[in-house]
């Protein structure tokens, strides 16, 4: 079980070139799996491309590229953590993908 990963953590995941933001909630992450979205350095800001900047990572979180990742099967390293305001912006954008109207 993986109790160390929290929503908003930024990870470097084995065999994935870009940093990954953990967008799933902590209760989900405790299973060893996360839902994450990648951060690309070069992109254009849009409703689904949210600019983030931390001490270690800057770029655009691509909210439409959600992926389920099994961290029990991959090597990973925490590299940073988002501020709450950034987590809210990203999860709001993701929720917007699934709105009814």
What does this structure look like?
This protein is an alpha+beta fold. Helices cover 18% and strands 36% of the residues. The chain is built from two helices and seven strands. Strands 1, 2, 3, 4, 5, 6 and 7 form a seven-stranded antiparallel β-sheet that branches. A hairpin with a 4-residue loop joins strand 4 (49-53) and strand 5. The N and C termini lie far apart (37 Å).
The radius of gyration computed from the alpha-carbon positions, rounded to a whole number of angstroms, is: 13 Å
The percent range for strand residues is: 35-45%
At CATH level 3, the topology is SH3 type barrels
Enumerate the spans where pLDDT stays under 50 for 5 or more consecutive residues. none
What is the CATH class? Mainly Beta
Please count the beta strands (DSSP E, at least 2 residues each).
Answer: 7
Please describe the biggest sheet, giving its number of strands, its sense, and whether it closes into a barrel.
Answer: 7 strands, antiparallel
How large is the count of helical segments?
2
**Count of domain modules:** 1
**Overall outline:** globular
The CATH architecture name reads Roll
Provide the succession of SSEs: EEHEEEEEH
What distance lies between the first and last C-alpha atoms, to the nearest angstrom? Answer: 37 Å
Helix content: 10-25%
Report mean pLDDT, rounded to a whole number: 94
Q: Given the helix and strand composition, which structural class is it?
A: alpha+beta
